[in-house]
Amino acid sequence: MSVNNLKLRFRPGQIAGSLAIMLAALFWSIDGLFIRPQFYVLPAELVVMLEHLLGFIVLSPFVFIFWPKIKTLSRKSWLALGWVSLFGGLIGTVFITKAFFAAMDGEVSFATVVILQKLQPIFALLLARLILGEKLPKKFYGWAIAAIAASYFIAFANLGADFWEINWLHNGALFAFIAAFAFGSSTVFGKRISNHLDYKAVAALRFGLTSILAIILVLISGSFGSLSLISIKQWSLLGLIVLTSGAGSMFIYYFGLRRVPASAATILELFWPFSALVLDYVFNHNYLNWMQLTALAVLLLAFYKISILGRTKKIIFSGKVIHGQGRGKLLGYPTANLDKTDLDIVHGVYAVKIIFDNKQYSGLMHFGFKDVFKEEVSLEILIVDFASDIYGEILQVEVLGKIRELEKFASPELLIEAIKKDLDSLKRLAY
Fold this sequence. Notes:
Layout: H1 12-35, H2 44-59, H3 61-65, H4 67-70, H5 75-104, H6 110-116, H7 120-132, H8 138-156, H9 172-193, H10 199-221, H11 232-243, H12 247-257, H13 262-268, H14 271-284, H15 290-311, E1 315-322, H16 327-330, E2 336-338, E3 348-356, E4 359-369, E5 377-383, E6 394-404, H17 412-427
Helix pairs in contact: 1-12, 1-14, 2-5, 2-10, 2-11, 5-9, 5-10, 6-8, 6-9, 6-14, 7-9, 8-15, 13-15
């Protein structure tokens, strides 16, 4: 049986996680269609500065809570945070705001801007290949080209899809493309930093750093003078953005992401364009023509295929066995702690294959935080039918597939029961 056929246990938490991601997506749709256009008369960079500054005020307590870990971040991690703040926080948000403002002028529909945002995973995967060296299946590139082509027709079908007549410098679709690239690139670096720092701390730092960058941009552009133009209603809407599509949706989204596979989250995020299409049609009476609907079908198929291809990616690494706290041994399931904790995969329990001394073993891998506040990332391997002393030895590990999310257990007995179920899932794999 291949890893793709591994049958995951269905948990109520997965329902809650799926609903959380869809709720966050709904907030993004409502923001773009109804809230952000209310700031049309203001400079986009001023709006972005204010929403991030207010968001940072809400999230700032997490800087103090996780400060001991933040102080130990490497230069590489700070550079990653800087990239996420610049591209994901500033450039991405400024250009998506400009895209929605352009939609107010009728250049594109609001729904089209949202749909083009779904190019983000494609940019993220391409940049992961270029920056992180992650290998992608050859079929990925064909589906990526199909998705980009479909997005082009969705954006410009109302203009006759004539490439040469498009005013690229003043077009909402171009702004949406740039935003998708910015958000996608920040995903690549955010993926790495989130494995070393709790997402709440990452969110707080991102909002803080983006606020500083946005203040600099506003000073350079001379947009501070427009502060006097903000009405009481707009201040209220800024507060609403913080609680819903801003800091609020980030918490809701990551709550869901911790409970469902990343590939499933990609599909669930499609609730964003779907809800935008419905809301745009019901309230703004905008609709897609036959060419755009056909392109949308191609786009959704491409997204599905890309998510499937993403699950087949092979991850192989080596790590040195180090001393741990011996908690696994006390439970009757001794584990090998590895010094390799910089994997670019989401935290969870995985089925793995281990190579040691030219012999192959099956096993389970626990990868993630051990303590919420100390933020210690650990990577432990439970090797089936193995009892040798291997401290200081090098193990080669191949990740086969994710079995479940990380969980907290109220008692050792519940943890032991979970390990038994994980081993039952492992037995269904043929090596």
